[in-house]
TrEMBL record:
MF terms in GO: ATP binding; sequence-specific DNA binding
Domain PAS stretches: 197-272
CDD domains: AAA, PAS
Keyword Transcription in annotation: yes
Domain Sigma-54 factor interaction: 359-588
NCBIfam families membership: sensory_box
Organism: Desulfoprunum benzoelyticum
Record protein name field: PAS domain S-box-containing protein
Gene Ontology BP terms: regulation of DNA-templated transcription
Keywords, ordered alphabetically: Activator, ATP-binding, DNA-binding, Nucleotide-binding, Transcription, Transcription regulation
Length: 674
């Protein structure tokens, strides 16, 4: 959970600041690998300088006034400023700050609850943060961002930046980037602490008499003789009674490392410096062991000869771990490159469409759909797409997303009919580990994944009622909770829903929430069935022929006119999806350059008995007779709805489903047929 107080102004907000804010955040993201590489290359002695210069670069890039790293000691309320940079005209703060006294509210949020505190305006602080507000004001702070940095389960450092000259808003990408940079700094400091602890430990080994894992030795550079403890002889692969010399020790060392060992010894003796060398030593059984030898020059008297006294340890396990980590990093980089490549291919695939709408259409019936797409694409409004199965509702959703200002991120799709009712809430809103039986890990929901993008809810009518209530809240407020978590998550998501059912009828039948229906039905788009746009059939057929021809390695260049006429005369109850399947079957069976459709029966299914109408036909005929009798009057006294005993909206719904047009009905005023 993050305590975010950024509700009003700010130049860094990508949405409010436009391209300037986006570019600043992009530059900060590009700075991360550069800082990481710089940290990796530096030594422990120059680490502080590199962190300081990196902080200066970050703060100046963001045009802020002050910032730094604060070291938090366990069980102590005071924090120490370990690294900081201040603008020339900004007041310098003390090196040690008692957070619990000056900033008690922030201290609880940061150290106890491990949450980020982002403050745009001091006036936005809650009443219980009055002391914090006073302290910030005394320091001249107008806006502040403080991020806790953990090592293990404890807050180890805080990274903090201040805006003194004006107020700032802290967008999530900025917080994420600063947190990552802070973690890089703290990880490097922790590694240095570990390294220095190792140095102390190794220094103690130098005065140890005997250790099971460490051997002590003394080299006479004049004679080359080496005195060694028994444990050192074991490490060097010598017997207990064998005499060790530098020459026969070099014979045992890996040929590629011998010159390095000699160079290290000579340099230590000539310059009176400490020696440190890692080298390989092949064993008789073929195993390669890694040894670390560290020594320093010792002189027993003013005129006595110099000796190199040192300690040797087996570091094979460490080297194996380093190698394993190196391989893991290589694998991570490989997978990252693969993911980037797949993402590029996916975006390319999404972009391979006939036009900006991503679907073929030359018919007048689809021109209205295209007009609606252009009207609503950049508004951010919720869209409800309705149409029969196979009409291309998802393609309409993709076109809306592609033409919107959210197109830089991929649209996230959820098929509500494909998910079990018990899992659909977890899929939409995410879950915490242990939220229910089988929830073995934490998982983000589709709403989180679709942040600043579009969430397409296909087959929305199949969503359970209990999930509809939570969806309604997310649509109204942009807020939801993961399963098993009380923490509210706020997202910016555009919703596009689709269904092949009549949602109003679902509401009337009690299967769909009325309030959710009105929330979704802000901008409805009706996708016409293929039978109402037969002029689209020829270009669609050729599109599918080209697609399957590439996949199957076949080239079809002709389609008989009578076959195309049969395709255009068929009613296509399965719409474009059925047409695609018919073309695919024909591509499989066709020989030569012509598409052969002679073996496919495209006639509509025959009734069981020619004299018996289907229930749908009876209903259609009955409604037509009622409308004809009332001379086209639908609602009101004496209207067709009253005669049929239906609510006018229900009658209109049935007419749309049965494709009944009033102007096509013969108006006769004869009730005998009813």
């Amino acid at each position: 959970m993050e305590v975010l107080m950024n509700q009003s102004q700010g130049r860094l907000d990508e949405n409010s600041a436009g391209e300037e804010g986006y570019n600043l955040i992009r530059q900060l993201e590009l700075l991360i690998p550069a800082v990481s590489a710089r940290i990796l290359k530096t030594s422990t002695d120059t680490l502080d300088e590199v962190i300081y210069s990196s902080l200066q670069e970050i703060i100046q890039l963001l045009k802020l006034s002050r910032g730094g790293l604060l070291e938090v000691s366990e069980g102590i309320c005071k924090v120490k400023i370990s690294h900081a940079w201040f603008d020339v005209d900004v007041e310098v703060v003390p090196n040690t700050i008692d957070l619990s006294q000056l900033f008690p509210w922030s201290y609880r949020q940061l150290v106890r609850d491990c949450t980020t505190v982002a403050i745009t305006s001091l006036d936005s602080l809650p009443a219980e943060a009055a002391t914090d507000k006073q302290s910030f004001a005394q320091m001249g702070v107008q806006s502040s961002l403080t991020i806790p940095l953990l090592i293990g389960h404890r807050v180890h450092h805080l990274i903090v930046v201040h805006a003194v000259k004006q107020q700032w808003t802290w967008p999530e990408p900025l917080i994420t980037s600063l947190r990552l940079l802070g973690e890089i700094f703290v990880s490097a400091l922790d590694r240095r602490d570990v390294f220095r602890s190792l140095e102390i430990y190794q220094a103690r080994l130098e005065i140890a008499a005997v250790s099971a894992e460490v051997g002590l030795w003394e080299l006479d550079p004049v004679t080359g003789n080496i005195w060694a403890t028994n444990s050192a002889k074991v490490l060097f692969e010598f017997g207990q009674d064998e005499q060790i010399t530098l020459s026969n020790l070099l014979d045992k060392i890996h040929p590629d490392d011998r010159s390095l060992v000699v160079e290290t010894v000579d340099k230590a003796i000539d310059a009176d410096t400490e020696s440190y060398v890692e080298y390989r030593l092949p064993r008789a059984d073929g195993e390669i062991r890694w040894l670390l030898s560290r020594g320093r020059v010792h002189q027993k008297g003013a005129t006595a000869s110099k000796y190199l006294v040192g300690v040797t340890a087996d570091i094979t396990s460490r080297k194996q771990m380093e190698h394993k980590l190196h391989e893991q990093f290589r694998e991570i980089n490989r997978l990252r490159e693969l993911l980037e490549h797949e993402n590029t291919l996916l975006r390319s695939e999404v972009g391979l469409n006939e036009d900006k709408y991503s679907f073929l259409s030359v018919s007048s019936a689809m021109q209205g759909v295209k007009l609606h797409i252009e009207q609503v694409a950049n508004t951010g409004s919720t869209v409800l797409i309705q149409g029969e199965t196979g009409t291309g509702k998802e393609l309409v959703a993709q076109a809306i997303h592609r033409l919107s200002d959210r197109s830089k991120r991929l649209m996230v799709t959820v098929n509500c009919a494909a998910l079990p009712s018990a899992l659909i809430e977890s899929e939409l809103f995410g879950r915490e580990k242990g939220a229910f039986t089988g929830a073995l890990s934490r998982q983000k929901g589709r709403f989180e994944l679709a942040h600043e993008s579009t969430l397409f809810l296909d087959e929305i009518a199949e969503m359970p009622l209990e999930t509809q209530a939570k969806l309604l809240r997310a649509l109204q407020n942009g807020v939801f909770e993961r399963l098993g978590s009380p923490v509210s998550i706020k997202v910016d998501v555009r919703i596009i829903a689709a269904t092949n059912r009549n949602l109003y009828e679902e509401v009337e039948e009690g299967r769909f929430r009325r309030d959710l229906y009105y929330r979704l039905n802000i901008f409805p788009i009706q996708v016409p069935p293929l039978r109402d746009r037969v002029e689209d059939i020829p270009p669609l057929v050729w599109k599918f022929v080209s697609e399957f021809g590439q996949n199957m390695g076949r080239k079809i260049s002709r389609i008989a006119s009578q076959d195309m006429a049969r395709l255009m005369a068929y009613s296509w109850p399965g719409n474009v999806r059925e047409l695609r399947n018919v073309v695919e079957r024909a591509m499989i069976t066709s020989q030569g350059k012509s598409l052969d459709l002679t073996h496919f029966d495209l006639a509509p299914p025959r009734p069981l008995h020619p004299s018996i109408m289907t229930l749908e036909e009876v209903e259609c005929r009955h409604i037509q007779d009622a409308i004809g009798f009332t001379s086209g009057k639908i609602k009101g006294k004496g209207g067709a709805a009253e005669i049929l005993g239906l609510h006018p909206s229900t009658l209109y719904s049935r007419m749309r489903k049965l494709n009944i047009q009033c102007n096509a009905i013969k108006l006769r005023g004869d009730i005998s047929s009813l």
